[in-house]
Amino acid sequence: MSGAATRHRALLLLGPTGSGKTPLGELIERRGLAGARCLHFDFGANLRRLVERDRPDEHLGRQDLAFLCRVLQSGALLENEQFSIAERVLRSLLAERGAGPDTVIVLNGLPRHAGQADAVDRILDVREVIRLCCTAETVLARIASNVGGDRTGRDDDDPASVRRKLELFEARTAPLIDHYRARGARIATIEVTPAMTAQRMWETLERPEGPV
Fold first, then answer.
1. Is residue 76 part of a domain?
2. pLDDT tens per residue across span 177-198
């Protein structure tokens, strides 16, 4: 996967915690999008799976797993100098899932800031950003009702943790909209409501006119 000619096409799901990225990504993987085969890469879910498995492999050593555990507990972001860990997780998934040359990679949770975006660009060609917009009140309501069915067993959904993640999202991740717009990516915006399901979001994306 080295070199621009071999980069997979990708789209980025961008939205705060609780906005519905994971259920939407899973649905896009099952059904595709605009006729394309899609592979959903949920970075946070993959980190949680690796930490829970607690077994080093050829991609991640014991020190890496201990570091990722601290990242999950603190809600911190991987900074530029730590991106090699994220890259190894991503490349492992692409190989494990048999991503073909026509597969569209659906990114969820990576990149989280402009530094990571530059690093991801070496691996993937992000041509579209699906922006899930919702207020803090909507996020809290969606998490409380588990509308997407993806919050079960999460130990980081208390109001204080959620608000801290929302602040971090606004400061570090939301600016990626301008980052990708400047690079010519298409920006599709969905206004998320407290009860909006992944099915409704997917239908919005599949409409001929698409979202805003």
1. no
2. 999 999 999 999 999 999 999 9
